Amino acid sequence: MTAQTASPPDLVLFNGRITTLDRAAPEACAIAIRDGRFVAVGSDRDVIALAGPQTRRIDLRGRRAIPGLIDSHMHIIRGGLNYNMELRWDGVRSLEQAMRMLKDQVDRTPAPQWVRVVGGFTEHQFAEKRLPTLDEINAVAPDTPVFILHLYDRALLNGAALRAVGYGKDTPAPPGGEIARDGAGNPTGLLVARPNATILYATLAKGPKLPPEYQKNSSRHFMREVNRLGVTSVIDAGGGFQNYPEDYSIIEELHRDGQLTVRIAYNLFTQKPKEELKDFSTWAGQVKPGQGDDTYRANGAGEMLVYSAADFEDFKVERPEMPPTMEGDLEPVVRLLAEKRWPWRLHATYDETISRALDVFERVNRDVPFDGLHWFFDHAETIDDRNIDRIAALGGGIAVQHRMAFQGEDFVARYGERAAERTPPVRRMLAAGLPVGAGTDATRVASYNPWVSLAWLVTGRTLGGLALYPAANRLDRETALRLWTEGNTWFSTEPGKKGRVEAGQLADLAVLSDDFFAVPEDAIQDITSVLTLLGGTPVHGDKEFSDLAPPLPPAMPDWSPVRRFGGYQMRAGAEGARPYAFSSEGAGAVTAAAAGACGCATGCGVHGHAHASAWGAGVPVSDARAFWGVLGCSCWAF
């Protein structure tokens, strides 16, 4: 037994199968917690013997427990402000089911509010392998504005939404996207991200916003939703329309009130093209990395450092070529960050972008040595071996996300199966000794469900069932879990503080609905948490632990999709599934158990475990680089 205790613990958990990720003692049956930290890890007999009269005891009933999951790339602050307004198609496995949910929400949404489906899904996850048509959307929503965002490639607006945002025949073509039009020049409702996603998010920003009290409620519900999936920490990657300090006021108020149920380390994301250096110079005088506490703290800069270095990751279109100004724009910002000892992260999808950024980093490092500064690239789907080694030589890392689980079919269609086999080459990164962490890039480009990411890392398959990776680029389950726990602590400069079940570390824990190490590969994505602890305090409880976590107030407003559907839609048959039954009129039935546990309505299960056959397409080239184009890009809306 490992122990750091001189007085009785506050809490003892026993009769479990605990994966500690401590290499010296990888498995345990029981743990003791005091003052928010693990103080003993070992056998039932040894740990229970430490309990005193006031110690609370929880029987884990043989369930698997793991360290609380850490998402190294999520937009949780922005996502929380909007969560209660959004109908989530995350996890829905048929377009038929998605459209029934849409119709139900349209019927309950009062004017002038919108119904929004803002990312987190892909057409490839649907059995029908397609998006709804504009005619289908208009048929279920003739009067209520509907905005549906699909990844970063397009948005679908019904006629009511076009009227609400003021797009008509005389609306000029925007510089950052395309408004599709019919033969008479009228907008059809399709917005296309070409060359970047500016049109999508500028349009979304025209919709109504929640008032501050509702935003607080919304943020709490979103945190509880990720707690339900075992997430206890997030590194927030900033985002478009997420200004500092204005858009951080809600999360900071929740922190002051002791209502955060997720540890957040936040990055600052520049908002003004051509004024990036001014932004970071200002922020360097306002906040310092590490400022805060173990629950809410500043982390550094990015993922946007300069707009001219942001390559757009829509694999339906050609690779964007970064403008010639990229290096000149990026260097002064990186130089400032290195001088101020600010860690940074940089969005980079393609190897070509990474090469040019590394030229800048190496030049700055010669003058201002990085010397242990935690900096890293996000995404890196097409990075090559040479650039992996260059990052290692500079002491950097790579945070990977499961975007290919959502867009793998599109990548294969454009570049071919061989090119997709290392997208990204995670095993090669680990072999090079790089710090590698995992995350989701939720809520818009992918789902926030960590188990979808873990399934992708282990199986190498997309949500549509396409096998992307050979065994040489897939991970075993323990390695994948380490990327979601202790591996991610490097990216918030917190190694040794959390990420393992070990005496002295923060007592963040997830007790699982199913054993991650025993379920079939196809069932990994269905895992949830039945008990989530943050610093030893229950923040989510389900099944036999449903009475341990405090209930939330109902989702606000009363027409919120969260009240009816919850968030991620579990597949039918999964232990964590929250059934949503439709009547012939399309109305939903709510299960009381989930409503009582989280204060919101339940979600729906859809269409079981049936998988459509792997989708594929022939491509005219064998060399991806020969097919890449030279579109300029200044995408900001990550």
From TrEMBL:
The protein's superkingdom reads Bacteria
Q: Where is the Amidohydrolase domain?
A: 58-540
Q: Which Pfam families does the entry link to?
A: Amidohydro_3
TM ranges: none
Listed name of the protein: Amidohydrolase
